[in-house]
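Project channel, design review

CF: Before we commit to the Microtus ochrogaster constructs, I'd like one complete example in the thread so the newer folks can see what an input/output pair looks like. Taking N-acetylgalactosamine-6-sulfatase.
RD: sounds good, go ahead.
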Amino acid sequence: MALYAKATRGPQLLLVLSAIGLLAAGAPQSPNIVLLLMDDMGWGDLGVNGEPSRETPNLDRMAIEGMLFPNFYSANPLCSPSRAALLTGRLPIRNGFYTSNAHARNAYTPQEIMGGIPDSELLLPELLKKAGYTNKIVGKWHLGHRPQFHPLKHGFDEWFGSPNCHFGPYDNKVKPNIPVYRDWEMVGRFYEEFPINLKTGEANLTQIYLQEALEFIRTQHARQSPFFLYWAIDATHAPVYASRPFLGTSHRGRYGDAVREIDDSVGKILSLLQNLGISKNTFVFFTSDNGAALISAPKEGGSNGPFLCGKQTTFEGGMREPAIAWWPGHIAAGQVSRQLGSIMDLFTTSLSLAGLNPPSDRVIDGLNLLPTMLQGHVMDRPIFYYRGNTLMAVTLGQYKAHFWTWTNSWEEFRQGIDFCPGQNVSGVTTHSQEEHTKLPLIFHLGRDPGERFPFSFASDEYQDALSRITPVVQQHQMSLVPGQPQLNVCNQAVMNWAPPGCEKLGKCLTPPESVPEKCSWSH
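CF: and here is what came back for N-acetylgalactosamine-6-sulfatase:
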C-alpha cells in the first residue's frame, strides 16, 4: 500500500504491557481484541444509562464488571464516516470519508458510490497483522463496494457480512438487493437467501452473526493465535429486525426486541470467553457508530437519553454513544470514567494492546485509553463534530461551542423528515444552516446536557469558555490537511449488479439514510 508506515513495538508500550502483567513469564504477550460496534444504537438504550425498561442485563453486567464511558463520541453522526474513523484512528475529513458536493452535507456509501477507503489509509487490522493477529469482520463493512475496497484487501483475514446495510428489498431491475459475502464469495443477498420480513420484523441475521463470532473465537483459541474480532452488526438500523424467539418480548416494541437479542448475543460472547479461560487475555469494547435515528422513532428508532436530536446531527444525541470497556483482571470492576472518549481511540488503544506504536507519518486523532482504563487517568482533549466538510462544533471539558447549527432542510422537514422530533429549541435546532463562527453558541454539558440553554454572550463564563476553545479550534483548522473526498461521485455501473446503459456519473446527494423507503440518489 502507498505510504505504508511501520507500526513498531515501542519500549514505552512494552513497559506499559509489562506493568499490567502481559509480559510475565508464560503469559501471552498480545491480548485478543473484540470490538462490538452497533448500528444506530442510542446512548439511552442501555439500562445502565437509565433506560427504564432495563432490558439489557448482559450489557449492564458488562459495565458493572468493567468501565462505563458516559462521555464517549463517534467521529461523525453517520455510519460510513464513523466506521472509517474507527478503523483508521483519523477524522473523516482526514481519511476522505466526506463529501464536498454541498456545505455540511452528510454522506455514506450506497451501492452506487465510486469511492471507498483509500489505499493510503492504514487500517487497524493491517497493522495488527504485524503483531501476528488473525482478523475477522462480521457484519457491516460500509467502506466501499468496489473490489479495491474489499475488507480482505485492508487487513482482514475473514469476512462474513455485507458492504452495506440491509436496505431493500429492491426490484433487481434498476437496483439489486444488497449482497452478503463470505470472504470473496457472494453467498446471497438480503431479502433473498437472507430473508428479512418487513411486516413482522423477523430475521435470523443476528443469530447468524453471533455464530460467526463464536466459531471464530473457538477456532483462534484452538490455534493459540491472538485475534481481532470486529463484530459490526446492524439489527438496530431501520428496518430493525430480530429472530422469532425475541420478537414481541420487549416493552419497547420491535426496536427493543432487536436490542434484547443483541444484549443476549453479547452475553453469549462474554460467556464463551470466560468458559474458554481467555477472558483475562481478551479486551472487549462495546459502542455504536452514531446516535439513535430519531427519524425512525418511535417504532424503529432508539433513545438518546437526555441528549438533543439524533443521527445525522452534531448535537449530542447524534454523536454521544453508549460505551463499555471489559477486561477482567486488568480493568477494575464498577468504574465510571469522566474521560472524553472517541471511537477513534479504539484504533490507538488496540495498537497499544498489541505493543505497537501508531503510524508516525500522519496525524492520528485517537488517543490511547489504556492509562484511563488501567490507572484512572483523565486526559484533556477536544472533541470535534464534523458534518461533511464543515466543523460544526467542538467540546472541550464541559463546554461545547456550536459554530454552525442545522438539523435538516425545511423542504425535508415539511415532508415529515424530522431529526429532532419533539425537541425544538428556538435558535438551536434550525432548519436553515445558521453560522455562529464569530459568536458561537456555547453550552455547559454538565448542567445542560440537552443543549437548551446557551450562555449569554456577555457573561463571564461565556468569555472564559470562548477563550479556551478558540485557540484549540484555530490550531486544528490551521494544521488540517483534508483528504481527497471519497463520497462525491455516484455511478450505477459500479453496483454489484447493474442494468446496461447505467454508466452516467453524477454527484451523490445524500438522502435521509435512516429511512430506506424514502432513499433516492440524484445523478
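RD: helpful, thanks. The mean pLDDT is 91.
CF: The longest helix spans residues 254-275.
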